[in-house]
Amino acid sequence: MIQEWQLSIVSILKGLQGYCKVRCWNWSSSWVVSSGVYCFWAELPPEARPIQARVLEEYQRLHDVLQVLLCGQPDDTLRELKQANEVVIGVIKQEGCLHYATADEAFLEATEALKTAVGLISRLYSAEEDTIILVPDTNALLYNPDLDSWDLYEGRQYRLVLLPTVLAELDKHKINHRNESVRKCSERLIRQIKEYRRRGSLVDGVTLRTGKSVIQTVAIEPDASKSLPWLDASNEDDRLLAAMIEVIRRNPRAYCVLVTRDINLQNKAEFARVPYEEPSEPQRAK
Known about the structure:
Elements: H1 2-17, E1 22-29, E2 32-41, H2 49-69, H3 75-93, E3 97-98, H4 103-119, E4 132-136, H5 138-143, E5 158-162, H6 164-176, H7 180-197, E6 206-209, E7 213-217, H8 236-250, E8 255-259, H9 263-271, E9 276-277
Parallel strand pairs: 4-5, 4-8, 5-7, 8-9
Antiparallel strand pairs: 1-2, 2-3, 6-7
Helix pairs in contact: 1-2, 1-4, 2-3, 3-4, 6-7
């Protein structure tokens, strides 16, 4: 996810690079002992401005995600992220004087800084490698409550992770939802989840289908003030997305997927570059 985003930003940077030039003045003075070269960005042509705006928006969204994922890391990691950000932002915004002699040098350094920033994710601890983690929203569970029948990746094993936000919503639905079928389905799901607990600790994960799937509950209640700046803590979808990003932060080398049929949540996930899928179709009675 992040690496693909990085490559797309590099591609836009290359498009901007073709319009950029660095001007240099040689200067000296009889009353100043030193002399040297003063370099600055030439003004961008009007047709380059939309590209600049696009790459700035894309990069700032990526940087927001990196800040959330690297939250709480040692000071040297955060310092490297800050330094890399200053380089990339400086080249994109093209403000002030430079230490580059050419635009190509500047963009090469920005590309390397972007690569460094994304590479910091490799320092995160991951309990699982190359694992598929599915994080469903409430509607996905209600759409297909037969969780052991889910098969989104053609036979590959997966871990189904239930968030506190989703469990709390099921509890509300079983009592307060105006639709009786939703109330009954919510109650059925809660009974199922309690039954899974008889097999072992849901916090550690218990088997759904042998060799196929595991179900797990997590107690992740993210601090919205430390998540993506555009998420609204009062919005249920935004809280779920913040929790989803926290799952990704805790499992940086797993393939974490949000499972939802909600088009608005899908749009928000796409904006944050969080992978999503729709739940498996329920098995219909013959």
